[in-house]
Amino acid sequence: MNGETRLLAPLVPTRGYFPDFLTPPEGLLGLDNALGALRETPPARVHTELSRLSHAHPIPSWIRAMGDGDARQIGRLAGTLQRYHDAAVAPYWPRLQARIAADRAARGRALLDGGADQLLATLPPMLRWRAPILEADYPVDRDLHLDGRGLLLLPSYFCRRTPVTFHNPDLTPVLVYPVEHPVPRAVPPLPPEHSLGRLVGRTRSEILRGIGVGCTTSELARRVDVSLASASQHATVLRDAGLLVTLRQGNAVLHTLTPLGTALLRGGVPAEAACERSKCG
């Protein structure tokens, strides 16, 4: 992976500008669609966006060639991104997906409870909703006007400290913001095999089923007909076993299932296979 990292570092610096064409909207449909769109980026756009890269460090010859219209180099870039993803992202995807799903559930709950105002007010603290303006701790002083367009909010596991948006204001307005990361515990959690060994009995099975698409501890207690303390205790065991994620939302917490928890409820059948069996969409 070190080779891929060295190749990609000049394109995606730790701070500052990186080209918009590296994050095509087709990425919402999966990596294959994103890489396909990357390969089809018009050469003029590649040239324009690469010319904005900082020259504080030398630009490798293959990136200069890509900016000059060498189609082989953009194919090389796509292959490098694929290999980097396979090594650095794919092995950890279930964990990343669980954190992102938890954040989406929290935003969805805020939207249902209080509309767009409450959704925007519950975003991470580096974003502040002061209607009609959403302020952000952005690396540079910049205004982005929606002009009647919607704003696509994208939670990101890798985005830290400051949000990210496209450099080109004519592109679809997108705001990438950090998901909440759990605070490290003072006391190490129990080993997974110990936690899973405690995961027995009807009540915890009902707890898993009761979570559904996400619920608070109070709602969970009502759904399963147990005390609030009991629901909280069972949720802790399930969280230690990697079967649910807990995200704080104001004075409450929101529990959502991880992919492992969902698979357990389906008897170990992955979501895609379960969908195929039921002939869903």
Describe what this molecule looks like in 3D:
This protein has 12 helices and 7 strands. Helix 8 packs across helix 9. 46% of the residues lie in helices and 11% in strands. The two termini are 37 Å apart. Strands 5-7-6 form a 3-stranded antiparallel sheet, sandwiched between helices. Strands 1-2 form a two-stranded antiparallel sheet. A two-stranded parallel ribbon has the order 3-4. The longest helix has 29 residues, at 93-121. It has helices spanning 2-8, 31-39, 43-50, 61-67, 71-88, 93-121, 192-198, 202-211, 217-224, 228-240, 259-265, 271-277, and strands spanning 127-130, 133-136, 152-156, 174-178, 215-216, 244-249, 252-257. The protein is mainly alpha-helical and 281 residues long.
Considering the chains and any ligands shown, give keywords for the structure.
about 280 residues; 3-stranded antiparallel beta sheet; two-stranded antiparallel ribbon; 12 helices; 7 strands
Shape: globular
Strand order in the largest sheet = 5-7-6
Total E-strand runs: 7
Helix content: 40-55%
Q: How far from one another are the termini?
A: 37 Å
| Structural class category | mainly alpha
Radius of gyration, taken over Cα atoms and rounded to an integer in Å: 22 Å
Main β-sheet description: 3 strands, antiparallel
Unreliable residue runs: 192-197, 269-281
Beta strand %: 5-15%
Sketch the topology as an H/E string, one letter per element.
Answer: HHHHHHEEEEHHEHHEEHH
Helical run tally: 12
